[in-house]
């Protein structure tokens, strides 16, 4: 057996040879890599130069060439396409994503990602039928199902295809295991509105029943039912529906004050009107309930009591809407005509009230003079409610 030192001497040439071979192979690989890297970085530099020079068409062409060299650049293409879309350069985003999809070497996952981006381009460009078709196909793919269904829902809301929206909402509920019942009830209410506008009163009531079946707490369904009953002079049914609105959501009381007065006028039942607002005050201490009570006293010809009721309320609660109603009734009162400055205040306040936002979104704070059932700002449903008072300093409105 040779000594260890002898083994070392014997093995040294072999080690040297293998080291040389490994180094040579590494250098060969490095050389190849450097050649590719040089080409890639030259093309990237050229692509970036085209971008900087605002020559996006040539930039796309250059970046597309890179794809043939290295599949990893697909991510770069997708990022670039997103950038174009975000900047409003939809044509370029479309072309880039179409080029990408045309590449035969894409994996199924990469192709679907590119198709999803293309569908987003179509959506942004307002080509809704093509966007819908692509999202519909991608909704069957696990990786894109959630995002595709959400966008499909947005498309159906935009095109007011409520039955299709209901189907998609159900699919989202199953996929995400969340309840979409409140939103589906809103879609049924929209169906009711469309039917009523088309003269199909029976269809409108059927859709409202469906809304309540899906979401029994849907106050909008009763508010709409009350308005429709009022329009066909079914006053008792209208008052019953308005009463249910307040049981479901007392914040909506401002919406029912005038319709309830109209319904009671139709019935010639002023006592019933007074009783209605007495009952409402047992449920809510909100200013519109007190204003409604004062208005019903006014309807009954009891102006002194209307003024006294509002005065008592305002002693405990500052509220511009109630204060303005008090000034209006005081101005209408024969014996207590307002003097100059107070009458100027009444007029100025009236002007502010006519312009100030009266409703606001609980979700995003968007304010408006109308009760939008879908917030125009955050697109959520059933988040806008009447304000308890006007806020003259509010600037955002719609
Ligand atoms: Zn909102």
Describe this structure in words.
The protein is mainly alpha-helical and 398 residues long. The protein has three domains: 29-162, Serine Threonine Protein Phosphatase 5, Tetratricopeptide repeat (Alpha Horseshoe), CATH 1.25.40.10; 245-355, Tetratricopeptide repeat domain (Serine Threonine Protein Phosphatase 5, Tetratricopeptide repeat); 357-398, no CATH class. Helix content is 73%, strand content 2%. The chain is built from 18 helices and three strands. It has helices at 4-52, 56-69, 73-86, 90-102, 108-125, 128-138, 145-158, 162-176, 181-197, 201-214, 219-231, 235-248, 253-267, 270-283, 287-299, 303-316, 320-332, 340-355, and strands at 359-361, 367-368, 384-386. Strands 2-1-3 form a three-stranded antiparallel β-sheet. A hairpin with a 5-residue loop joins strand 1 (359-361) and strand 2. Residues 1-22 and 394-398 have low confidence and may be disordered. The structure holds zinc ion. Zinc ion binds at residues 361, 363-364, 366, 375, 377-378, 380, 383. The site of zinc ion has 9 residues, from loops.
List the helices and strands and how they pair.
Blueprint: H1 4-52, H2 56-69, H3 73-86, H4 90-102, H5 108-125, H6 128-138, H7 145-158, H8 162-176, H9 181-197, H10 201-214, H11 219-231, H12 235-248, H13 253-267, H14 270-283, H15 287-299, H16 303-316, H17 320-332, H18 340-355, E1 359-361, E2 367-368, E3 384-386
Antiparallel strand pairs: 1-2, 1-3
Helix pairs in contact: 1-2, 2-3, 2-4, 3-4, 3-5, 4-5, 5-6, 6-7, 7-8, 8-9, 9-10, 9-11, 10-11, 11-12, 11-13, 12-13, 13-14, 13-15, 14-15, 15-16, 15-17, 16-17, 17-18
Bound molecules: zinc ion.
């Amino acid at each position: 057996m040779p000594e260890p030192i002898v083994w070392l001497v014997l093995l040294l040439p072999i080690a040297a040879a293998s080291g040389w071979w490994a180094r040579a192979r590494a250098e060969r690989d490095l050389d190849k890599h450097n050649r590719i890297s040089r080409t890639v970085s030259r093309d990237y530099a050229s692509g970036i130069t085209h971008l900087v020079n605002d020559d996006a068409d040539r930039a796309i062409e250059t970046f597309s060439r890179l794809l043939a060299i290295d599949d990893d650049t697909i991510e770069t293409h997708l990022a670039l396409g997103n950038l174009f879309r975000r900047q409003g350069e939809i044509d370029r985003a479309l072309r880039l994503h179409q080029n990408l999809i045309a590449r035969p070497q894409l994996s199924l996952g990469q192709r679907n990602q590119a198709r999803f981006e293309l569908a987003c381009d179509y959506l942004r460009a307002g080509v809704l039928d093509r966007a819908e078709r692509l999202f519909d196909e991608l909704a069957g793919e696990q990786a894109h199902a959630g995002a595709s269904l959400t966008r499909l829902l947005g498309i159906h809301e935009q095109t007011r295809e409520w039955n299709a929206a209901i189907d998609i909402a159900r699919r989202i509920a199953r996929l995400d295991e969340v309840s979409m019942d409140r939103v589906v009830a809103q879609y049924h209410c929209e169906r009711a509105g469309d039917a009523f506008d088309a003269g199909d009163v029976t269809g409108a009531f059927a859709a409202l029943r469906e809304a309540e079946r899906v979401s029994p707490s849907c106050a909008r369904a009763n508010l709409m039912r009350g308005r429709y009953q009022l329009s066909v002079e079914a006053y008792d049914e209208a008052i019953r529906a308005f009463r249910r609105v307040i049981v479901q959501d007392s914040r909506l009381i401002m919406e029912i004050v005038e319709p309830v007065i109209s319904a009671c006028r139709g019935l010639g039942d002023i006592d019933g009107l007074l009783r209605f607002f007495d009952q409402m005050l047992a449920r809510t201490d909100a200013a519109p309930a007190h204003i409604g009570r004062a208005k019903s006293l006014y309807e009954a010809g009891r102006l002194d009591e209307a003024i006294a009721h509002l005065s008592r309320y305002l002693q405990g609660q500052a509220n511009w809407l109630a204060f303005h109603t008090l000034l209006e009734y005081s101005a209408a009162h024969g014996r207590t005509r307002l003097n100059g400055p107070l009458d100027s205040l009444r007029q100025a306040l009236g002007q502010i009230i006519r312009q100030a936002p009266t409703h606001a979104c609980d979700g995003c704070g968007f304010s408006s003079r109308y009760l939008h059932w879908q917030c125009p700002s955050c697109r959520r449903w059933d988040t806008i409610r009447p304000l308890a008072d006007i806020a003259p300093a509010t600037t955002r409105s719609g």
